[in-house]
UniProtKB/TrEMBL annotation, chains A, B, C, D:
Entry-linked SUPFAM superfamilies: Homeodomain-like
Annotated organism of origin: Lederbergia graminis
Any Pfam family hit: TetR_N
Protein name in UniProt: TetR/AcrR family transcriptional regulator
Keyword check for Acyltransferase: no
Domain of life the protein comes from: Bacteria
Annotation: DNA-binding region: 32-51
Keyword tags: DNA-binding, Repressor
Length: 195, 195, 195, 195
DNA sequence: AATGAATGAGGGTTCATTCAT
DNA sequence: GATGAATGAACCCTCATTCAT
């Protein structure tokens, strides 16, 4: 990569970072190209030179965001933590970014998700999912997970927790009940049957 | 209420219904006052005569929606169903409306929720919450809920399930794992300890 | 037509007149909605309230223009002038408007003309064409037109003359050769055979 | 011309050809410098290095086009065809290029034509016009043209035919009346007086 | 000489809101 | 009270042109 390309990449990054931070805070609709340009310290047209439309930019920002978010997880999966510890972190670990995400950005995120031929699905299937399955099997072997429950269901269950924990509107009321939620996660509402 | 007022109320209702249906389908941002006026068969200015701004209208629509949605629950609480059955229905019952709700409407819903002095909070505290608490205590007495877990946490847990079930982007993949999710809800990932 | 509608029609007319004069002078592309709004003394949005887009406006202006231009002809056809006189006037009569028409307006005019289901074609077939045919038959009966030549060809020939005379870029050089052109029109390049 | 200059000339040609083809198809206004650069496989700035602005480029393209178009005629004038045959060809010969010319290009062509100190006028006066005059005189001598008609008028007449034949919007309806039009050209609407 | 990158100015269009009847 | 008409502000996007390498 020569000097030209490097500068080009850097500019693209500037724009992505500016867009991402604004999208996360205000959502995609409320943020205008002009604002992104201002924060990225480029002209509006420069943005159009790199990303052909606002829609395409949003898409690229989502991809950028996923890469960024995933890298936080990769470490965790490869760590030496025990199974319950890993799971707890997955659920409660607040990605600093994700935690303040705005609903309208989330919405576009999801729209991208539901569309066919999308990047997220692919990324998910090839990188994220295998890691999770691996973790679940580990959990089943070690007796932490009821083996009669399908991996799909567990994944779903974990993701539900995880996403819900990260919803900005409920983050505040979360702390006092963390302990209880952990219990609920592991033993459900019936609770641990200690006999 | 005389004839005048009745007509007035009917017009307001027309507007609310029109706005609600559009908001649910397209979100609040993408729906213009002009469109609402058209569907409600009213002039734009009439809307402004009743609701001083679009923001206020959205607020009123949310309130209207909550009343509508709550009435579906009230029946359930007063029914003769067993505790587990009630809980299952709460979680899995798809409110036909809620199921197709658009993210941007949801977003405004949540914004309203997080603001102070809001209607939802109040409504929730005075009408919804007590019913839930009552249900949980019933569940604890009957041995269906671990009594060491706080009602706040259980409420949170239930709502998480409920809301997640209703997310339009995942509704499709839900059916095959309903059984497992029910198990997870009651016994967590560790599963029922039958010995 | 009540007061409302009358004012509405008047505003529409204001806009059409403003747009027409600008289009004729500068062409359709170079004229912005902002300029039309300014000359018509309305806001840009008002234009959009009446005409849903610039394209639609151009279309309506063309229709308006045709009606206007045609009314100049109707008189001529019904007059008591002799056949040669009528024909001469058709060819050389400078519609004050048409004479200064800008090429880009002409272009859109023609685009409208070539599209299917267009107004011009219909107008032409139902109003203009019959009048011309009538005139040609009159000319043939009176010995002014070679009866072996089809009406289509004559129409074509006349229109060619007419349109060409009105081309702004050549109007200036026209006057000194009017006489000769008349001869050419009636007798072709071979000239009158006076034996 | 050394190697450098040759390459330079070749690049200029690339640009002219690219611009011409785009202008003919889409008109001058709708074609952006970026598109020309792309088709010519050159950077935008290179275009500015050779032609100082878009307007200047358009001018040069017009000159280029005229040279190209004229060469088609030169052959015809020098051929051994009879006078009537030559004239017919001039009128009906469809220059493949000219036939699909876009109105906006034509417009700029004409604008250039009407401006003073222009190339077209000069070219016309010095190269094209003399050839036509020569032809007309030949026609008059051979009895094909009424000698009482000025050369200006005949030229005008011919050009009118020629240009009108080439108008894309009427080319289709032309074929069936070619015969009649030829008659009209030679004998006018009164027709040949054979006795 | 040639290029990729960057830009100011402007265009069409939409929208929530207000005016005037 | 209800409406059609009108608007200023903003938005996304394009373009001819210049800058910097």
């Amino acid at each position: 990569m020569d000097g030209f390309e490097r500068r080009r990449e850097q500019k693209k990054l500037q724009i992505l970072e500016a867009a991402l931070s604004l999208f996360i805070e205000f959502g995609t609709q409320k943020v205008s190209i002009a604002e992104i340009a201002k924060r990225a310290k480029v002209s509006q047209v420069t943005i159009y030179n790199y990303y052909e439309s606002k829609d395409k930019l949003i898409q690229e920002v989502i991809i950028y965001y996923i890469h960024k978010a995933w890298s936080e997880y990769e470490e965790l999966f490869q760590s030496d933590l025990t199974f319950p510890e890993k799971v707890k972190r997955i659920i409660f670990q607040k990605s600093d970014i994700a935690n303040h995400i705005h609903a309208s950005f989330f919405q576009d995120f999801m729209k991208e998700y539901t569309e066919e031929n999308n990047f997220i699905e692919e990324f998910y299937a090839e990188k994220a999912l295998p890691k999770f399955i691996e973790l679940f099997n580990e959990g089943k072997e070690q007796g932490y997970i009821d083996p009669s429950i399908s991996n799909e269901a567990i994944l779903f269950y974990i993701q539900m927790f995880k996403e819900y924990m990260q919803r900005p509107d409920i983050a505040n009321s979360l702390l006092p009940i963390t302990e209880d939620l952990t219990k609920l996660f592991f033993y459900g509402i019936v609770g641990k049957n200690e006999n």
